[in-house]
Specification:
- The complex is a heterodimer of chains A (389) and B (360).
- The radius of gyration of chain A is 21 Å and the shape is globular.
- In chain A, the strands form 2 sheets. Chain A has a 4-stranded mixed β-sheet. In chain A, strands 2-3-7-6 form a 4-stranded antiparallel β-sheet, with no helix packed on it.
- Chain A is built from 12 helices and 8 strands.
- In chain A, helix 4 packs parallel to helix 8, helix 5 packs antiparallel against helix 6 and helix 10 packs across helix 11.
- By secondary structure, chain A is of the alpha+beta class.
- Chain A folds into 3 domains: 85 residues, no CATH class; 107 residues, Butyryl-CoA Dehydrogenase, subunit A, domain 2, CATH 2.40.110; 136 residues, Butyryl-CoA Dehydrogenase, subunit A, domain 3 (Up-down Bundle).
- Chain B folds into 3 domains: 108 residues, Orthogonal Bundle (Butyryl-Coa Dehydrogenase, subunit A, domain 1); 87 residues, Butyryl-CoA Dehydrogenase, subunit A, domain 2 (Beta Barrel); 147 residues, Butyryl-CoA Dehydrogenase, subunit A, domain 3.
- Helices cover 53% and strands 14% of the residues of chain B.
- A 4-stranded mixed β-sheet of chain B has the order 1-4-5-8.
- In chain B, helix 9 runs antiparallel to helix 11.
- Classes of the chains: A alpha+beta (389), B alpha+beta (360).
- The structure holds flavin-adenine dinucleotide (FAD).
């Protein structure tokens, strides 16, 4: 039992802090507030920030050095997430957080050499092509087909809810190479979006933005050399991706939640309600649950740092942080009233926090990366071993 | 960063688990709760003394096991799992108080408590609610202690009481004719609350200021200990539930195959495991005397209280009618948890403590 950060890890934190002070010109919320920044400009800011991080060794912190990483552990990566909360999110979040680990685990040396450096530099932005209109929770029902065409394959079908698709250069796709084998008939392809036979259409979200989209394939080329793992191994690789998407990131969320709860406390101080018993109880519970979330996060971190891959326990983290984020945002809207409804560019909006965006976004986090219901299925089947119906 | 127990603690966990599963399964402990005056097995407590469990947290020079706060949490978690009855945590807290006062008689009693020969218990509360009061009514007047304490957990079994008075902390040996104790039967039939009227010879051990400092430290350990007990209780309750879900049939299938019940079991598990993370992180912080210990202990107590209430309540629900019978065990867990939510710093007081630890 030990939750200490080591000397070296503390040292890493101090250096990073100094680096951020020097290099982060403007907090992300200021960029969001700036009316000159449209969605395209904001995305460029993220891409530039990512390039800067990469040049300074702050991307792929826990990846092996030979793959452009820094060769440190998930602990330093979590420290980065905690320190950099006011920085823009990187452009290729999906690539670096999800595909990167899968490539390091499963790809060939040649594939890693081809894809990882440009993923890190932000030159190639990635999106995740798993979900389809009729295959979401039931992902193995996916129907996008990969048909043999000489040495290579041609894709036919459609993906949906593809985050960053409108800004991406490449997509990793689960496609069917065998229509009769539910799990063993799925293959994991890396596919360029800049080609004939691909049509990307943005979808507007409840926030009004179009962060995700649809991707239509009609004969797009999927090269054999860009299959990760063997043909028919796609499901296994997808599970690695999903495990990373669910667990291992709750400390990054925590750093945000620390900042959010602080803003909420400031807010109730300013509106004069901090001494009300109902307010105190609500804030205290949010604070207590946040500490529990941190304890869960450190626990996962300790497991990952000891070299184990995330298992079904990742479902616990996914449920906890996603459902907590709803309670926190709802709590803020309750206690701050309409001030927390004001959009970031509205007069009178809270200067350091975009509660409206957070409240809406918190409705997505319990759906993606396996909905809360699916996580509970995983826990009851794989951990509690309850019988199937 | 490491979450696993170290070798010593892992060993401690195995030994206490084996001991309790053999000596105190509910089939054996329920008659103690239900049919004895003390509410626990005196023989088992004597054995806990012989085996060194009663001096668990004390240093080796005090005759203790030096297992630290984490070791205490490990043992209490296991005791919770089998709903082990009696004043184990109360004895530990009395010891932790005794070892902080420099006094020869206190050291004497400490040794006798560690060995299991005597029971020293704290008598602090003067009201049944958890509201803070500005002053104590119990007084120490020229080596006589006068006042009324309630509730005192297992007070009737005490050989010595450590009594808080307006003047400070006093040591009161059991009078020849015994305590003037009135039993206060409560929701948790395994608990023994008494009201004790004191007009007895006693002696001031420390003044008020020092007593407050000592008890503040002891209270943190109490809150942590109660959290670990509740963690164990909800684990035990979840184990009961999972067995039942896999065995009971309705509509021609095992009820554990109904998705709605699977999700409720998953929620119970989430609560148990999250409480585990919180309790052990708090134990670690307290053991290392870290600044954040106040926040973490208060969080662990409040969260495991809410969680244990939920988990043990769900157990009754998922058992159906038999869950509401005296015969089945779910109520044993549920009742212990309801008591622990109130004792050692009630949930609402812990929530307030959490805020204050952050200057809010
Ligand atoms: C903001 C956002 C970003 C996303 N980004 C991506 C992306 O980049 N790439 C990508 O591939 N996908 C992405 N997704 C898609 C996401 O993974 C799916 O929406 C999700 O898996 C749910 O699938 P669905 O939408 O088809 O809902 P459905 O599967 O139709 O689910 C509908 C409801 O039924 C419940 N349900 C379904 N099956 C069960 C069951 N067996 N037991 C109990 N309840 C069940 C679900 O929990 C849900 O409440 C994103 C989604 C969102 C909201």
């Amino acid at each position: 039992m030990d939750f200490h950060f080591s000397e070296e890890q503390q040292q890493f934190r101090m250096e990073l802090r100094a680096w951020l002070k020097e290099n982060l010109e403007r907090p992300w919320i200021e960029e969001l507030r700036d009316p000159k920044n449209d969605e395209k400009k904001l995305f460029d800011i993220r891409r530039n920030w990512q390039a800067k991080l990469n040049e300074s060794g702050y991307l792929g912190i826990h990846w092996p050095k030979e793959w452009g990483g820094r060769g440190l552990t998930v602990v330093e990566n979590a420290i980065f997430a905690a320190e950099a909360i006011h920085a823009p999110p990187i452009a290729s979040r999906v690539g670096i957080n999800l595909l990167g680990p899968a490539l390091i685990h499963h790809a060939t040396e040649e594939q890693r050499r081809r894809f990882i450096p440009k993923m890190l530099s932000g030159e190639e932005v990635w999106c995740q092509g798993f979900s389809e209109p009729d295959a979401g929770s039931d992902l193995a029902a996916l129907r996008t087909r990969a048909e043999l065409d000489g040495e290579d394959f041609r894709l036919e079908g459609q993906k949906v809810w593809t985050t960053f698709a409108p800004w991406s250069d490449w997509i990793f796709v689960l496609a069917r190479t065998d229509p009769d084998d539910r799990y063993g008939g799925i293959t994991f392809f890396l596919v360029s979006l800049h080609q004939e036979g691909i049509d990307v259409r943005p979808i507007r979200q409840i926030t009004g933005e179009s962060e995700f989209g649809e991707v239509f394939f009609s004969g797009a080329l999927a090269k054999r050399e860009h299959i990760v793992g063997a043909i028919g191994e796609g499901w296994k690789i997808a599970m690695t991706v999903l495990a990373y998407e669910r667990g291992s990131m709750s400390l990054a969320h925590l750093a945000r939640f620390d900042h959010y709860l602080k803003d909420l406390v400031d807010g109730v101080r300013e509106n004069g309600s901090l001494q009300r018993a109902d307010v105190r109880e609500k804030i205290a519970r949010l604070m207590v649950e946040k500490e529990v979330l941190r304890a869960n996060g450190y626990r996962t971190l300790a497991t990952l740092a000891s070299g184990q891959a995330p298992g079904p326990e990742a479902s616990l983290e996914k449920i906890f942080w996603s459902e907590y984020s709803r309670r926190l945002a709802d709590g803020a809207l309750d206690l701050l009233g309409l001030q927390a409804h004001l959009l970031v560019r509205s007069p009178h909006a809270r200067p350091h926090m975009d509660w409206a965006q957070e409240a809406l976004y918190s409705r997505a986090v319990t759906i993606y990366a396996g909905s809360s219901e699916i996580q509970r299925n995983i826990i009851s089947k794989r951990i509690l071993k309850l019988p199937s119906s | 960063m490491q979450f696993e127990l170290n070798e010593n603690h892992a060993l401690l966990k195995t030994s206490i688990r084996e001991f309790l599963e053999k000596e105190s399964p509910l089939a054996k402990s329920r008659p103690m709760m239900e049919e004895t005056q003390e509410g626990f097995s005196k023989e088992l407590y004597a054995e806990l003394g012989d085996l060194g469990y009663l001096g668990l947290t004390l240093s080796e020079s005090e005759g203790g096991g030096a297992a630290g706060v984490i070791g205490l949490a490990v043992v209490l978690e296991e005791m919770g799992r089998v709903a082990f009855p009696g004043p184990f945590l109360d004895l530990v807290l009395a010891e932790e108080t005794l070892c902080r006062v420099k006094d020869q008689q206190a050291s004497q009693f400490l040794q006798e408590t560690v060995s299991g020969r005597k029971k020293v218990l704290l008598a602090r509360s003067e009201a049944l609610d958890d509201l803070e009061r500005s002053s104590l009514q119990t007084r120490c007047d020229q080596d006589t202690i006068r006042g009324t304490k309630l509730p005192v957990s297992y007070g009737a079994s005490a050989d010595v009481l450590l009594v808080t008075t307006a003047e400070g902390l006093a040591l009161v040996p059991r009078p020849e004719e015994g305590w003037k104790a009135t039993s206060l039967p409560a929701l948790d039939h395994a608990q023994r609350f008494v009201e004790i009227s004191l007009d007895s010879p006693g002696r001031l051990l420390t003044d008020k200021q020092r007593a407050d400092t000592i008890l503040q430290e002891v209270d943190q350990l109490g809150a942590l200990g109660a959290s670990a007990l509740m963690l164990g209780l909800m684990e035990g309750s979840l184990e009961l539930t999972l067995d039942y879900l896999k065995e009971r049939k309705a509509f021609g299938r095992t009820i554990g195959s109904f998705q709605v019940l699977q999700h409720r079991a998953a929620d119970m598990w989430i609560r148990v495991e999250s409480s585990r993370s919180a309790v052990y992180r708090a134990a670690w912080a307290l053991e290392n005397k870290l600044e954040e210990a106040s926040l973490l202990v208060a969080s662990a107590k409040a969260y495991s209280g809410d969680s244990a209430r939920f988990v043990c309540g769900e157990t009754i629900q998922l058992f159906g009618g038999v869950g509401y019978t005296w015969e089945y065990d779910p109520h044993i867990y549920y009742k212990r948890v309801k008591t622990l939510e109130q004792l050692y710093g009630s949930t609402r007081n812990q929530l307030e403590a959490a805020l204050q630890s952050q200057g809010i």
